[in-house]
TrEMBL record:
Protein's UniProt name: GMC oxidoreductase
A GO MF term: flavin adenine dinucleotide binding
Occurrences of domain Glucose-methanol-choline oxidoreductase N-terminal (ranges): 302-316
UniProt source species: Trematosphaeria pertusa
Tree of life domain: Eukaryota
Cofactor dependence: FAD
The keyword S-adenosyl-L-methionine appears for this protein: no
Entry's Gene Ontology BP terms: secondary metabolite biosynthetic process
Record keywords, A-Z: FAD, Flavoprotein, Signal
């Protein structure tokens, strides 16, 4: 304890930790002197926060503190073994949405990780990239320098792609393209070496409908049918979270990289408009403190909590914040607007002649489960390599491949009044940005993913509508960081989104009717068995869908300030100095697949930008 105090004092006095010979580690709030200073303080130790912390601390004379709301995990089986995920204790519970107006006033759980590693610690581990046109659209909205071409080097830098065994790959129609992958980065990207026989039925059924099989889904066109790539260690098949690949990997060589867990950042401290540090509160003891950031404060608290921290700090819609007595530092009405997520619809089936084993066998057959667990423990291909209840194959389709009704859906979208969709009286800048977004989205509906279909060979098929035109919001309802903000998904407030989900649903029916899948005798059990009337099906879908796939994003968008943007292309918050946002909040638009691959790549790019402006590259 004595030496800990001595070290904190040295730190507080601004002596750089290189000389100290101590190791990167978890610190407690007692280890921080009352007025400690770091070069960079990062709020949120999730996927993006730990990526940026790792890169900034590569320069050993630069000190970095990450403050994370949640604890460190204990490498529990539910954390490490894909077939046992998710680790419920590390979720943010309870966290609920506001009643969804277009969904009969229902409130839904908001899934978020609250742990060192954030979402990467509790998620299904899929490492996807969007299609080139999706990032190019970001650039068109003001994220200059963030096109697919600009990001590709960072996708490569972020990962080590593990080529699958060639014999297994050939048997399972797995192909890949070395030229788009990285082979020296921190995040291992692996294709599971195990699959259920029913996957062949799914694959062949999709192919019989003319769905393409790309050489590699990560090459800039993510449409088609393919096996999912995942952030999993190739040898052990254990989860590689950001905690593993951007903290554990480097801690022995980074005396300058600290993580303070179980502590909430409650606000950014400003001198004028310059961020000079953050205030924090220990979530167990309630002890509060301040830590200084001599170079920058960096926000990476995820799409729900980044806008909360900004608003609590006086960065947001000044008139809204004044209702809480919060003095405005930067009047940015876009903070907390532009919330987007994927819609999820689970379609239940009774496969009266399913194959064995299948995605349900671990649950229903304890002999099989024990056999598979022994194989997993022996590092042999095993059903536990697959993420619980999720499919291993993925179909992603543009609108015109989902439905013959694409032209009418598009013209329906064009007739909507954007101002009304944003609640009737939106901020003019936010409205202008939304109008630009709608134009670009509508014109690319035939060119990149709109609907996704995944079947885990068990009783449910998961459908996703991934190009939402509806917008939600995150707004504080209290000046206390420990009180949840108001999270409104705004789900299907633009009814076009429901039409597009219906198209995915009907496409899935077509797929289930192909001879390859029909041989398994699927009988729909929910949400609309036997229904053929489209309005009746839509009603049934509305009652069953979930407005989030935990892919919430875009609440501090990198767009032009006059279009409701919050950060500039260098990730700096408009109207402030020394304040950045580096997480999924900064995306202008959601991408069609899982976000984690793009979160890692975008954080790599943001870290480079930050290093460049401080002469650290
Ligand atoms: C159950 C689940 C399954 C998912 N499955 C997939 C998948 O298979 N593939 C995929 O691509 N994506 C998936 N995702 C989404 C993906 O994990 C997220 O998009 C990604 O982690 C976002 O990264 P981030 O760094 O922006 O935020 P996060 O990873 O969420 O990190 C934010 C961190 O900030 C912390 N924080 C919040 N407020 C404060 C505060 N006031 N002070 C300090 N710290 C704070 C949080 O505790 C959290 O650790 C899933 C997410 C969940 C929850
Ligand atoms: C705390 O540290 C900051 C910056 O290092 C300094 O400006 C300030 O005077 C210090 N305050 C106290 C009370 O020591
Ligand atoms: C760290 O070293 C680099 C050059 O090696 C220098 O440019 C930078 O100012 C130093 N940073 C600090 C915080 O001392
Ligand atoms: C691979 O594709 C061939 C047809 O090209 C098909 O016969 C086979 O069933 C497929 N196997 C899997 C596992 O998808
Ligand atoms: C969509 O349809 C077009 C035209 O038939 C085809 O060329 C393309 O490969 C299809 N896309 C997918 C993802 O299957
Ligand atoms: C599912 O199939 C089994 C026979 O395999 C049958 O007994 C059962 O009633 C079916 N359930 C539904 C909901 O159709
Ligand atoms: C259960 O699993 C065992 C071991 O794989 C297998 O031999 C058996 O046939 C399975 N039982 C059923 C009912 O599928
Ligand atoms: C469009 O209709 C034709 C003819 O009925 C059908 O063959 C085709 O699969 C449909 N296309 C889509 C994308 O549903
Ligand atoms: C999308 O494709 C459909 C069918 O091919 C076509 O009618 C429509 O004009 C296309 N829309 C756009 C915006 O490309
Ligand atoms: C928001 O705050 C008000 C005032 O404290 C309270 O009455 C209301 O219940 C809160 N709303 C939610 C959803 O917590």
């Amino acid at each position: 304890m004595r030496s800990t105090i001595a070290l904190s004092l040295i730190l507080a006095l601004g002596v750089h930790s290189r000389a100290l010979g101590w190791h990167a580690r978890a610190i407690t709030e007692r280890d921080l002197a009352s007025n400690a200073t770091y070069d960079f303080v990062i709020a949120g130790g999730g996927t993006a926060g730990l990526t940026v912390a790792d890169r900034l601390s590569e320069t050993l004379n630069v000190s970095v503190l990450v403050i994370e709301f949640g604890p460190f995990d204990q490498r529990e089986d539910e954390v490490m073994i894909p077939g046992l995920f998710p680790a419920i204790p590390y979720f943010w519970l309870p966290l609920m949405s506001t009643p969804q107006t277009a969904l009969g006033g229902t409130s839904y759980t908001v899934p978020c990780g609250r742990v060192v590693g954030g979402g990467s610690m509790v998620n299904a581990m899929f490492m996807s990239r969007g299609s080139a046109v999706e990032y190019d659209t970001w650039a068109q909205l003001g994220a200059t320098g963030w096109t697919w071409r600009d990001l590709l080097p960072y996708f490569r830098k972020s990962e080590t792609f593990n080529r699958p065994d060639p014999i297994y790959a050939a048997e399972h129609n797995i192909t890949w393209d070395d030229s788009v992958h990285g082979f020296q980065g921190p995040v291992p990207v692996t294709i599971a070496p195990y699959d259920y026989p029913g996957s062949a039925n799914f694959y062949n059924g999709a192919r019989s409908l003319g769905i393409r099989a790309p050489k590699d889904s990560q090459a800039g066109d993510a449409t088609g049918i393919y096996r999912l790539q995942r952030a999993v260690d190739a040898k052990t098949q254990a989860r590689s979270s950001a905690r593993v690949n951007h903290y554990d990997r480097v801690i022995d060589t980074r005396p300058n990289y600290h993580v303070l867990p179980s502590t909430a950042v409650s606000k950014v401290v400003f001198q004028g408009t310059s961020a000079v540090g953050v205030e924090y509160i220990n979530t167990a003891s309630g002890v509060k403190g301040t830590v200084h950031a001599s170079k920058e404060a960096i926000i990476a608290a995820g799409a729900v909590h980044t806008p909360q921290i900004l608003q609590l700090s006086g960065v947001g819609d000044a008139s809204y914040l004044s209702k809480f007595g919060i003095e405005s530092v930067a009047d940015l009405p876009g903070v907390g607007q532009n919330l987007q997520d994927h819609l999820v619809l689970s379609v239940g089936y009774n496969f009266t002649s399913n194959l064995f084993p299948n995605g349900g066998s671990l649950r229903t057959n304890s002999t099989y489960a024990a056999e598979q667990r022994a194989l997993y423990n022996a590092q042999q291909p095993s059903a536990y390599d697959l993420s619980t209840s999720t499919g291993n194959l993925f179909i992603q389709l543009p609108l015109s491949n989902l439905t013959n009704a694409s032209a009418s859906i598009i013209s329906l979208a064009e007739t909507r009044d954007p101002a009304e969709l944003l609640g009737g009286n939106p901020d003019p800048g936010v409205l202008q940005g939304y109008k630009k977004q709608r134009k670009l989205i509508i014109s690319s509906l035939n060119a990149s993913g709109v609907g996704d279909i995944s079947w885990n060979t068990d009783f449910a098929t998961s459908l996703y509508m991934v190009k939402p035109l509806s917008r939600g919001s995150v707004r504080i309802n209290s000046t206390d960081v420990l009180t949840a903000p108001l999270i409104d998904f705004g789900a299907i407030t633009d009814p076009t989104d429901l039409e597009m989900l219906l198209a995915v649903y009907l496409k899935n029916r077509e797929l289930m009717a192909t001879p390859d899948i029909a041989i398994l005798s699927p009988v729909e059990t929910s949400p609309a068995p036997g229904l053929t009337d489209k309005d009746a099906i839509k009603d049934a879908i509305k009652k069953t869908l979930t407005p989030t796939n935990a892919h919430h994003c875009c609440t501090a968008a990198m767009m032009k300030r006059e279009d409701g943007g919050v950060v500039d292309p260098q990730s700096r918050v408009y109207g402030t100095k020394r304040l950045s946002v580096v997480d999924i909040s900064a995306w202008p638009l959601i991408v069609a697949g899982g976000p984690m691959g793009s979160v890692y790549a975008a954080a790599e790019k943001a870290a480079d930008t930050i290093k460049a402006r401080h002469g650290l590259l």
